[in-house]
Amino acid sequence: MSTDTAPPQDRGADRLGATATLPGQAQAAHGVLGVQGTIPPVRVEERDLTFDGFRFTCRIVRQGTPRTEPVLVLGGSSQDRNSWVRHEKWLAPLGQVITVDLPGYGTADFLPAKYGVDFLAAAVRHLVEELGLPRINLVAACYGGAIGLRFAQHYPALVKRLLLVGMTTRIPAGYAEAMERWSVMIERGETEPIARELADRFMSPPGTGHVRKHAAVSRLVYQQIVGQSPEELRKSAEHNTRLMRHEWYRPEPSPAIPSLVVTGEYDTLTTPEMGREVAARLPAAWFTTIKETDHLAPVERIADFADLVTRFCTDLSLTDLPYGNTTERLGTSLTPR
């Protein structure tokens, strides 16, 4: 349910097997981290993979000596592998950051709706194994959160830490009803009203609380959806059908790995109460909200969200953060951090 807000100029990336050095990103990372001396260049690679006959693509960003396990980001249903480009200058110093267009999304092959969350979680496993990664830090937002949690449930040995953003145990009733209408509207080519409605649903209503970049992000959401190509619309319609046919959340056993569930403090789509419910069902989970944000918290406070990811993935303190509210310890096997 999240959306891609990376502007076109941020979308450049080399194709299969190629690498690129991005001095600007390295310089920005130097400023954020306060590192002294020469900063290693950022290297970007893209790899095409195939799982069960469906082609998909991942983006790999590397910089310097790894400080933690690779960070794999699973974005929301309207995001692609380039949606997190503006986060990379803060996340790349962790060592390796991977984003992906799973089958059915971005530039990957069209995926029929009969393939659900289990299949997409298995595709993530295939990606991790093909890249030769023993374990990963998994950051998963909204629909990516549903895939990420299923991945952790089915393949716990591959997950070092799990961070869920805007996640819930159920699709909000109003959203589920709207998806049925949107499928019909997409067939009619009525994208403008869908774009307007989605922008309103992703963003908190006026008067809920102060949200940073509210107007700008709302415009970007609208522009992205209204500007979809026929193939993107076809994938969006199939995604809606997939959501209605398959379980969003399944109460299977979850691994006792360090977990963090995050929402925006003014998120009215996947509310903080819903986030707490997710955290309460995990064995070792913390929960917090990011100040002055709603459902699109990772975009509204990019540097702060990246700092939260960095802290979590390197076992730094998650308390008393200037951009965060109280960190709640909801897992039964937790100790203070």
From TrEMBL:
Pfam families with a match to the protein in the record: Abhydrolase_1
Keyword entries, A-Z: Hydrolase
Entry GO MF terms: hydrolase activity
Residue ranges constituting the AB hydrolase-1 domain according to the UniProt record: 70-298
Top-level taxon in the UniProt lineage: Bacteria
Coiled-coil features, chain-numbered ranges: none
Record-linked InterPro entries: AB_hydrolase_1 (IPR000073), AB_hydrolase_fold (IPR029058), AB_hydrolase_sf (IPR050266), Epox_hydrolase-like (IPR000639)
The protein's name: Alpha/beta fold hydrolase
